[in-house]
Design goal:
This protein is α/β, with parallel strands linked by helices. The protein is 41% helix and 20% strand. The protein contains 21 helices and 25 strands. The longest helix is centred in the middle third of the chain and has 33 residues.
């Protein structure tokens, strides 16, 4: 991507002209499969852009866009980009009160909504906003005289494109500048009121230019997409794909596993939660079918993981925070070499058997990109052991989102890798002073991808930027001596006990999720004497556990919670996992646990990328928390 092609419209025009006959998208609708070429994508964007322009959407118009991932999402997004309009995207599960806050705060003049059900849900609130026009993507013809409500069927009747319209559309790129605002994305609100992140073409194009090299992207790559398109991680992944003439297959949670085998992707972009789900599903399925085979599978994974570890010792691909003496390095590498020789035949057998699991991903997968949250260490090791090259990436909406990643330019395991080209990272202490390698502090970021600030939020902007222009991420981390990043937690999520001890909940939560009957967990205890865990169980697995260890049948969560012996046994097993030999401190033990009857739901307790909204969960279960820990 040439530097002078400095907006997303430049990118779209360049790629559509270069790859006219190639497939851009594959999607399903009404039980049929549809394929879209880059030529058709260009035509669809032009026609929708023409229709929007006729209804007064223009450069600078703020357009609320309420829709989940589908082909029409990207067409709509690109049509708004071509007009210089500012999209304000959100998912369908956005509550009415939150939607009203966002639309009033960003001063939205137009609304695009995916379907009539969603429109009807918010209709009463929308009537009070005085919008110029409302468009419904999926609806029959609904427009009537003097109405400001349109379906795409209403506005897309005329599909004839004249040659001069093509020339005029291409010429529009000269009216857009890299400093123009492309989108305002309101954060998912894991810590409170959503904030509108301003992203310009320059911010996003930095990722479009710099990230393809890191993953070796070519026009032959095929992605399977499952994340919400409005989220910046998925959105940028799709822009990367478009920039290189790749093909995207739109999938769903229900069809994801089947789509991997059917379409045989070379790339997938997922969040840690989906990897946790796959880990649990594979292990649980094996245990149900044949417990002996499940044990063998776990041993094979352990052999593969140990071999990979020793190989990394030999190749100097593990994080280092200080220089070692030559003698110590030689000793470590000699021991590693002996271990590799001993493990070689076992590892060859393990890798051959584990390749059957890898085949479930289609057999062509080059890279799996994990972003939108920290990937737990045990999952990182497990994915690596079964033979999938994972790109453990770190990003934020405020950085469009790419900050760092363990991509093809970095093989140092147990790290997030190196900063993206043109990005400066520094780790600072509580006084804002930079610290050295291996010292934990807050991560500060500077680069072209960093937002200019939050929309109409001077107070938050003052808090979020240092005098030297660095963005204060709120995340905690440390750097290796080679400059690779390791995330250790989030400063806003750190639990401060009554004793003054600081506890990062994420590592403890990911460790507890290794237990087969734990679907999800959230650590609590801020200002308390000790820690507690709210646990969302896999009740069928929990029943099996109780039957095995207590020879007792339970029919509901209440029966489990009433039996103090069961609760004590489970708490003891959890605390065994939080052993000091595994790096946990004495105060990081659980004082108590509580099983929840309801799972966390997206849009309520979870964000669209399945991160936990701690403030929501803690408020919802405040009475329980106050009762079971002190």
């Amino acid at each position: 991507m040439r530097r002078e092609e400095n907006t997303l419209l430049h990118m779209l025009i360049h790629t559509c002209l270069k790859h006219q006959d190639k497939k851009a998208f594959i999607y399903r609708a009404m039980e049929q499969e549809f394929e879209v070429s880059y030529q058709k994508l260009f035509d669809d964007v032009l026609i929708l852009s023409r229709a929007f322009k006729a209804r007064k959407i223009e450069k600078g118009s703020k357009v609320m866009f309420l829709c989940d991932n589908r082909y029409e999402w990207m067409v709509t997004d690109l049509a708004l980009i071509s007009l210089g309009a500012i999209s304000v995207p959100r998912g369908l599960d956005t509550p009415t009160l939150e939607l009203e806050f966002i639309m009033r705060h960003c001063e939205a003049q137009f609304l695009i909504v995916e379907n009539e059900v969603t429109y009807n849900l918010h209709e009463e609130m929308l009537a009070s906003l005085g919008l110029k026009s409302i468009f419904i993507v999926e609806a029959q013809k609904i427009h009537s005289l003097l109405s400001n409500l349109y379906s795409y069927n209403d506005i897309l009747k005329d599909r004839l494109i004249h040659h001069e319209e093509i020339e005029a559309f291409i010429e529009r790129k000269s009216f857009l500048d890299e400093d123009d605002i492309c989108t305002i994305i309101y954060t998912s609100g894991t810590t409170g009121t959503p904030k509108g992140v301003i992203l310009t073409h320059k911010n996003i194009m930095h990722n479009v230019r710099e990230l393809p090299f890191l993953i070796g992207l070519t026009s032959e790559d095929l992605w399977v997409s499952i994340l919400p398109s409005w989220h910046i991680f998925e959105r940028t992944s799709e822009y990367l794909s478009l920039s290189h003439g790749c093909c995207i297959v739109y999938s769903t949670i229900k069809t994801f596993a089947a789509d991997l085998e059917t379409y045989k992707p070379t790339l997938v972009a997922t969040v840690p939660r989906l990897w946790e789900s796959m880990y649990t599903k594979i292990n649980t399925t094996l245990e149900k079918k044949d417990p002996k085979k499940a044990k063998i599978f776990k041993k094979l994974v352990a052999i593969s993981a140990l071999y990979n570890y020793q190989l990394r010792v030999l190749k100097d691909e593990l994080p280092r925070f200080e220089k070692e003496s030559l003698l110590l390095t030689c000793k470590k590498k000699s021991l590693a070499l002996m271990a590799l020789l001993a493990l070689y035949p076992l590892n060859a057998f393990a890798k051959k058997k584990l390749s059957l699991v890898k085949a479930k991903f289609g057999g062509r997968l080059r890279l799996a990109i994990s972003g939108g949250g920290a990937l737990p260490d045990f999952l990182d090791v497990w994915i690596d052991a079964i033979g999938i090259r994972i790109v453990n990436a770190y990003g934020m909406t405020e950085c469009s989102p790419g900050i760092a990643g363990r991509a093809l330019n970095c093989n140092t395991f147990s790290t997030i890798g190196l900063p993206v080209n043109g990005t400066t990272l520094k780790i600072v202490d509580q006084n804002g002073d930079q610290v050295g390698a291996g010292v934990v502090g807050e991560i500060w970021i500077k680069g072209e991808q960093v937002t200019r600030g939050y929309y109409k939020n001077d107070e938050e902007n003052a808090k979020s930027f240092g005098e030297d222009g660095f963005f204060k991420s709120g995340d905690l981390g440390k750097l290796t001596i080679k400059g690779e990043l390791i995330i250790t937690g989030r400063s806003k999520e750190v639990i401060v006990l009554a004793s003054g001890e600081n506890v990062d909940p994420s590592r403890i939560e990911s460790t507890l999720s290794m237990l087969p009957f734990v679907t999800d967990t959230i650590l609590v205890g801020h200002t308390k004497k000790g820690l507690g865990a709210l646990i969302v169980p896999d009740f069928e697995k929990l029943k099996e556990y109780v039957a095995l260890h207590f020879n007792k049948v339970v029919h509901n969560i209440e029966q489990v919670m009433e039996d103090k012996h069961i609760v004590a046994k489970i708490k003891s097993e959890m605390n065994d996992l939080l052993h000091h030999k595994k790096g946990f401190k004495p105060f990081e033990k659980l004082q108590n646990i509580h099983f929840l009857e309801q799972e966390f739901k997206t849009g309520v307790e979870l964000t669209n990328t399945l991160k936990k909204k701690r403030h929501v969960i803690e408020q919802k279960y405040k009475a329980i928390i106050d009762k079971f820990i002190h």
